[in-house]
Every structure is written in C-alpha cells, then in structure tokens.
Write a sequence for this structure.
C-alpha cells in the first residue's frame, strides 16, 4: 500500500512551506493564516491541502451537506425547479464570500469552509421549522434549552458526523460556523465576519427573486428608497452591496457596510418579513409545519428508543430527539409524519 505519510513525494514535502510563504507575501496582515491547523484532536497535515482546504473537503463530503439539497430555504415544496434550497443558498453565500475575501486579500479557503458549513444545522422547513423545534424544546424542558441552528451546525461537525466522531475541524472554521448568524456571538476572524454579512445579503436578495417568481411579489412593491440605493434587480443589488462591503471594509479595517447600504438592506429585510416570511401564504404553511413537527417531536420524546441510533450519540433524550428531527430533510419528515398519522391501505 502506498504510504503518503512515510513517503509524501517532493511536491507534498514542499507544499506547506510554499503555501505559508505565499500567504505571507499576498495576504493582508489581518488575514487568518492556514497554518497551523489547530484542531481539538491533533492530526498530521495533508501534504497537498492546507488544513482549511481539508476542512472544506470534509464538509462537502459530509452527509449533512448532501441533505441540504432537500431542505427548504423559504418556499416549502415549491412547484418549479428554480427556487432556492438550503444547498443552493449555501453555494451562493460561499461564492460571494470568496469574492469579498479575495478583494480584501483575506483567506479565501477559510471563508469557503465557513460558507459551506454555516447552515448544516438547519432544520427541515427552514426558519419556520427552526422556530417550531425551539418552541417545543422550551415548552418541554424550560427556556434554557431551545434550538438554534447555528449551534446545531457546530454540533453536527463536532459530534454527529462520522457516527459520532465529528469532523475535527480547525478552530477558525468552527468559530465561523458558530458565529455566522446575526443572533450568534461575534466572530473572531475577518473571514467569518464576511460570511456573517454575506449570508444576509444573499438570502434577502435571492428570496426576493424567488418571491417574484412565485407570484407573491411584484417589483413595484419593493421599498422605493432601498431600490433607489441598491438597484432594481437582484444582481444589481448584490453587486452594489458587495462593492460597498469591500470598499467600506478596506477603508475601516474591519468587515462593515456603509450606513447607507446597511439601512437599505435592513429596509428590504423588514419588507420581506412583513410581506413574504410572515405573509398569508407562509402563515398557512407554518400551521401545517407546526402540526407536523410537533407530532414528530411528541412521538419521539415519549419514547426516544424509537429513534435510530445512527447519528444521535447522546444519552440526553431531548438532545437525541432534536438531533434526529433537525437532521431530517423536508420530504423525510413528511414521510415519517404520514406513516404516523395516515392508516396503511387495506388491500
């Protein structure tokens, strides 16, 4: 058997030194460095990938990443092939984040790994599903429990993947995953701060695009001042926001939007919550999702032994239930719900 550790080859032997020299020459002094790869369990570095590239690969090969293609972004079971899913949102956030990182001479590999891993912990049915699981946990186990997708994303990479061994990611990637939400703690690297802002830039503008495609919105309904500031199409708005983020961050030495851009984006976000996220169609779906997830939660919390052992390495019954339900895709959750509530056909 070929032993790449004992006999790595000339390219592999020189890779880490060459990469570190490149980063010192080309990256900003404020950029995170790829070496050393600080992991909870020390391991030998790969000879042809930086520790951050290795993290990226571990995330994209994970089961949780593959499940994102069948998890809702905004529209539940959309009729059409062109609506965003949690996977396409993840790829869009990652692509835009890399653009910002490169423009600012920051570590693209770190930004990419965080972007790819940031939403691994999202429940089925998007933010509606997250709210239902959060409510179930608090109602049954008190206000200190709850469910927050950014914390569950970290739990997936730390514990649930690889049959309970986790992915053993580097500390900077773990920090970025945990801190990507505006409701989570502030990130410790500039690269993670990029993903935190770009996540919002991406979902607001792409959700507008999907809402217009679904017939829930018309361009004329969008807030006039925000559109005047950012542009009349999704691509124009994203381009304007990215340029603003890069230029303002470069001038201030931190990852920050200009006041005008931040105000316009907040106006769009508020409009989307009022009109789409909490609109009549989504409220109707929310009632169905609430019933579905509460049925599943109550079923499994009454007897956690019904949960398959794979992927739920916890002796805490509440944690086991959340691990199982949050890991479901939309269609798998529907299938389990139907099996519990619809009688089998009589032949």
């Amino acid at each position: 058997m070929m032993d790449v550790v004992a006999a790595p080859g000339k390219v592999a032997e020189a890779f880490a030194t060459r990469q570190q020299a490149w980063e010192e020459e080309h990256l900003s002094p404020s950029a995170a460095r790829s070496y050393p790869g600080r992991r909870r369990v020390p391991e030998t570095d790969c000879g042809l990938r930086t520790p951050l590239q290795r993290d990226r690969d571990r995330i994209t090969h994970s089961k949780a990443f593959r499940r994102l293609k069948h998890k809702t972004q905004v529209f539940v079971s959309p009729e059409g092939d062109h609506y965003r899913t949690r996977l396409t949102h993840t790829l869009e956030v990652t692509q835009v984040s890399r653009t910002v990182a490169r423009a600012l001479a920051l570590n693209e590999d770190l930004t990419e790994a965080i972007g790819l891993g940031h939403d691994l912990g999202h429940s089925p049915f998007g933010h509606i599903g997250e709210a239902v699981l959060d409510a179930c946990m608090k109602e049954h186990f008190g206000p200190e429990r709850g469910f927050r997708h950014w914390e569950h994303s970290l739990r997936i990479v730390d514990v649930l993947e690889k049959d309970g061994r986790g992915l053993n990611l580097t500390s900077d990637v773990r920090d970025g995953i945990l801190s990507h939400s505006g409701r989570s703690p502030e990130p410790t690297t500039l690269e993670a701060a990029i993903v935190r802002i770009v996540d919002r830039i991406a979902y607001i503008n792409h959700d507008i695009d999907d809402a217009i495609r679904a017939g829930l919105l018309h361009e004329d309904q969008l807030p006039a001042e925000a559109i005047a500031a950012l542009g009349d199409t999704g691509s124009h708005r994203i381009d304007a926001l990215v340029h603003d983020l890069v230029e303002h961050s470069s001038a201030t030495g931190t990852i920050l939007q200009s006041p005008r851009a931040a105000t316009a984006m907040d106006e769009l976000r508020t409009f989307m919550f009022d009109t789409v996220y909490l609109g009549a169609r989504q409220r109707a779906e929310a009632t169905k999702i609430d019933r579905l997830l509460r049925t599943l939660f109550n079923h499994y919390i009454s007897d956690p032994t019904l949960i398959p052992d794979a992927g739920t390495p916890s002796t805490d019954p509440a944690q086991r239930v959340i691990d199982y339900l949050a890991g479901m895709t939309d269609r798998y959750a529907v299938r389990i719900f139907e099996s519990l509530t619809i009688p089998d056909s009589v032949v």
